[in-house]
Structure formats: C-alpha cells, structure tokens
C-alpha cells in the first residue's frame, strides 16, 4: 500500500510540473525557390493557430501569413518585398536570394516551440548564347535551411577571480556582471543588454542601464563589454548597497535579433569625460517601445547581500528580518575589554589584601 501511495504521488508530481506544449512542427520546412517568390510550407502536429512572418517585417501584411485551421500552413514571399536580400555571385555565376522567416504558434508572442529559418536560394545564370529571342527560366537549386531554437538567457554576478557565484559581499568588493545566452546556433543571433535596474527587496528601484543599453552612472555600472563569445556581455563593478538595506537585486532585459552581418554594439558616451549623472527611480509603469527585435527576455541575477564593514555587518533591524545574527561595531574591541577587566580585578584584589593586612597588624607604641 505504501509503495502504491509513493507511485501515485510521483505520478501526480510529474503531472503537476509538466508544462504542456499545445502544438509543434513536424519535420523540416519545405522550400520552393520560384521565379518571383520563395514559398515555404510547414507541417504541424495540430491545427495551426499562429502566424508565419518575415523577421523584421511582422507589421507588413504582405510579409505575414495566417493560414490557420489546418495542419499544413505556408507563406509566399516576393523577392522584391519584405527586405529580401539579393547578392550577385561571380563564381559560380548567379544570384543568392536570402530571407529570414519565423513560424510562431502564438498569434502575438514568441514562445519556446517557435522556429526561425534563414533560407537562401541560388539562381544559376543560364550559360547560353542565342541569336534569336528566347525566354530562359531561371533554375532553382536546393535551398539551405538552418533550424534554431530561441536562446535561453541568464544573468550572473560572480567573483572576477574565481568566477564563482556570489551571495554575500561587502561594499567596495569587485564584482563581475555577466549576461549569457545559450543557443544551439549562436552565430544566428545578436544580443543587446538594456534597461537594467537595481532593487532593494522592498520595491524601490533605480535605473542603472538605459533603454539603449548605455550606463548612467559609471560608479555603479559602466558601459558593458560584449564578448568574448557570440552571445555574451560582461562588466566589472564595485559592490554598492542601499542606505538601510542589505538586499540588492539586479534585473535587465536582453534584446534578441536575427544576425544580419556583424552584431551591432550600443554606441554609448564615455562617462569619464562627462559630468556625473544622477540615477533616477524606475517608473512602476513600463511602456512598450516599438522595436524590430525578435524578442525581449527579462533576466534576474540571484539575490545579493551587500554588507558595510564600516558600520558593522548590517543594520540590526534588517538582519533580524532575514533571520541572521551579527554583531554591530563595538566602541571597544573585545580583547581590549578583557585586558582592561583583568587589570581592574587585579588592582581591586591587591588593594583589598593590603587593607586586610593593615587591619590585622597591631600598632607600634
């Protein structure tokens, strides 16, 4: 009976923690490189309810397909629309036509099961000499397709020497802020870290990196350095804390785009040559900013406790709320107090002994 209960509990646990995936793509996309259009066909597990669009042109009705209600859906992209890139090749002679397409199983948002394709069609130049009018249709070759899942991003604050995660530091300690996105095809994506803020655990938030990905106060966090990997950014900084709080939470947004050449890096002013800017509180109401980016991911670093050794480990009331025990800075160190107490006790006992001795000694006549 006990084993049956354990098995039933395990089954319920797995069922409770499983996240259902309502739909998905079967196999790879089928691509046909036509004379005027590129046609892509997808086969789905269930009836399709989302949309297919050309990356960067999701608001253009000519670049979006919503063939829903079937298990087969497709999109036809004209070669002279939707930002399709055409490149001439001399060896072999012909044309490369490139387009980036996303199949999204949600009507508005990008989800885990969505897929991105970069499709290239090569049109071979006909090598013929004619002496009379002749219409020669271009030959379509086998397209190149690349399947890529959405990257998974994280934010870490580590020791710059050991690279170990940190949970408790002191004001002024060196920290290394790291943003990393893991992807099966890292060369397909570009990342931009932006809109970072710091929070004290009670709702007070201050912006330290603006919407463009530029620093506001270099004493808190300077402009970021991108690399050394394709989807990595990092920056060293010194630990700081709020006046009456130990908890420091860092959160940022990461913008993900399909790579088109070199990944752009935010162009930010050199803060060392400018007057110090005052950090501002983060507005509780965030406004959506129109962007051609594929997705924005919010990442949060693990909670960091920052202590101030100049005034003790931390304010007593804050540590009491967190269930910690610490000693605030004493006016006199313990060693000095013990030495002073011992010396005082010795003097008292010596004087008491002298009084007893003198009281027992008879006076001389």
From TrEMBL:
Cellular compartments per GO CC: plasma membrane
InterPro entries: CUT_C (IPR057475), CUT_N (IPR056953), Cuticlin (IPR051962), ZP_dom (IPR001507)
Subcellular location: Cell membrane
Membrane-spanning residues: 336-358
Record keyword Mitochondrion present: no
Signal peptide: 1-18
Keywords assigned by UniProt, alphabetized: Cell membrane, Cuticle, Membrane, Signal, Transmembrane, Transmembrane helix
GO molecular function: structural constituent of cuticle
PANTHER family, A to Z: GH04558P (PTHR22907), ZP DOMAIN-CONTAINING PROTEIN (PTHR22907:SF16)
Name recorded for this polypeptide: ZP domain-containing protein
